[in-house]
Amino acid sequence: MQVVKYMFQPHGDDRGQLVALEEFKDIPFKIKRVYYMYDTAEGVTRGYHAHKSLEQILICIHGSCKIRLDNGTEKKIVPLEKPYEGLYVSNVMWREMFDFSPDAVLMVLASELYDESDYIRDYDEFLEFVNSNKEA
Ligand code: T46
Fold first, then answer.
1. Separation of 69 CA from ligand 1 center, angstroms?
2. Among 11, 49, 51, 62, which one carries the catalytic annotation?
């Protein structure tokens, strides 16, 4: 499994850093939604689902966390600990977010509006979806 991590360009000067993200330039899709999670309780793992169509970029803009990616065949753990790096998470990819530092803010740029019918929340269903996509 290829992990796609984007390193964004920080515009730094003696005042500090600034990162700008533009759709189709820094981000490979139209950004239709932005959400972020913070105050994540210690020891919590979030996610446990895949998406049928949604593509996303995950950026830990403060603190750190880890992302477990699983394409149905292979699993990889990717640490996110810099505000200028973004992890691309494709559709049909099981994800779990864990090991959040107490100050972590995980921001997500999404290619679609929120749609519960795009979620696959059952792991066996996910494996079936992966296999049926392979056969198609
Ligand atoms: C994903 C990972 C990385 C909304 O109302 N609108 C939204 O856009 C989102 C993302 C969530 N919600 C509601 C639905 C739930 O009642 O917020 C609540 C928590 O969502 P969820 O349990 O799905 O959160 P996570 O952290 O498990 O997953 C989220 C995204 O849902 C998911 O698409 O890829 O972050």
1. 16
2. 49
Active site residue 62: no
Distance from C-alpha of 101 to C-alpha of 14, rounded to nearest angstrom: 28
User: Tell me: the pLDDT tens digits for 46-102?
Assistant: 999 999 999 999 999 999 999 999 999 999 999 999 999 999 999 999 999 999 999
Task: Please say whether the structural domain 4-135 has been given the CATH code 2.60.120.10.
Answer: yes
Residues near ligand 1 (Cβ within 6 A): 33, 35, 37, 46-47, 56, 95, 97, 108, 114
**With a threshold of 0.85, does the pTM exceed it?**
yes
pLDDT tens digits along 21-52: 999 999 999 999 999 999 999 999 999 999 99
What are the two backbone dihedrals, phi and then psi, of residue 20, each rounded to the nearest 5 degrees?
-115, 135
Q: Domain residue spans in the chain?
A: 4-135
Residues 6+ apart with CB under 8 A from 115: 54
Going by C-alpha positions, the residue among 19, 51, 56 that lies closest to residue 34 is: 56
